[in-house]
Write a structure and sequence with these properties.
single chain, mainly alpha, P1 Nuclease, two-stranded antiparallel sheet, 3% strand
């Protein structure tokens, strides 16, 4: 697909969209790390420094605006039609040039195939992209509406700040949770997530099913991210989001992070244990 573009550049413009904040990506990587098999962990330790996935979980965001990596920009998200509330690959997985499979689902499938073919490849880029993109696709606004760039162009008031809706879901709801309930201690929050996974049951036993994950996130964007706490009223520019919005959606965010961690672990165990 777009493997050959590791050595060449594309020049196209796409909206700036970031998936989860640094904390969210690190959390997914840490949950995954704790659920790796011994074999998978050994492979990963030979590819990335100290085998620590959380250290590289944000690398794709750090390099995406560099000229040689700008072609990766659309690989972080999926644009869906407003209020379609689903993801259909044949309709939605394109970049601005119309190239098919240039979305986060396509990226996960591409790098999964590359790692499956060459699991001992010491080029860490493939692995770092998978770690990051599995995180991205679990952020509902990464499967958000094309008209507002996944909530980036919607400005809302929350916690006495004017923020864009995408940023709110990326970072600020998580930061409020850690500050209010975990004494601003990220490690305590991670420990809580890892100890409370029994609250959540993964209903899919499909490994690497990023098309399904994208569809779930697109549905959550409609049912939660884009509506007020009543679950009905559509959010518009200038709206004030109340504490009920936070309480409802922090649970969704934490569930998605936990699911992302377990699904990433399942995928990496599959890739490295079978080789």
């Amino acid at each position: 697909m777009f493997t050959q573009l590791l050595t060449c550049l594309l020049s196209f413009f796409t909206p700036t969209v970031y998936g989860w904040g640094t904390i969210g990506h690190m959390a997914i990587a840490e949950i995954a790390q704790n659920n790796l098999t011994t074999v998978a962990s050994k492979y990963i330790s030979s590819i990335i420094p100290n085998g620590n996935m959380s250290d590289v979980a944000n690398w794709p965001d750090q390099i995406r605006n560099l000229p040689q990596w700008r072609w990766t920009e659309p690989l972080h998200f999926i644009d869906t039609p407003d209020w379609s509330c689903d993801y259909i690959k044949e309709r939605d997985c394109y970049n601005n040039l119309g190239d098919f499979e240039y979305c986060v689902d396509g990226a996960i499938q591409n790098y999964t195939s590359l790692l499956k073919e060459t699991p001992t490849n010491t080029n860490s880029d493939y692995l770092k992209f998978i770690i990051h993109f599995v995180g991205d696709i679990h952020q509902p606004l990464h499967c958000g509406f094309k008209s507002n760039s996944g909530g980036n162009s919607i400005k809302v008031h929350f916690n006495n700040h004017l923020v864009n809706l995408h940023s709110l879901w990326d970072s600020q709801l998580i930061e409020k949770r850690i500050n209010d309930d975990f004494n601003n201690d990220y490690n305590l929050w991670i420990k809580y997530l890892q100890q409370n996974t029994y609250h959540y049951n993964l209903t899919d036993d499909c490994i690497g099913c990023s098309q399904l994950w994208g569809n779930i996130s697109a549905n959550l964007a409609c049912s939660n991210a884009y509506v007020l706490s009543d679950g009905i009223t559509k959010i518009k520019n200038g709206d004030y989001l109340d504490d009920d919005y936070y309480k409802i959606n922090i649970d969704v965010i934490e569930r998605q992070i936990i699911y992302g961690g377990y699904r990433l672990a399942d995928l990496l165990n599959y890739l490295y244990n079978d080789n």
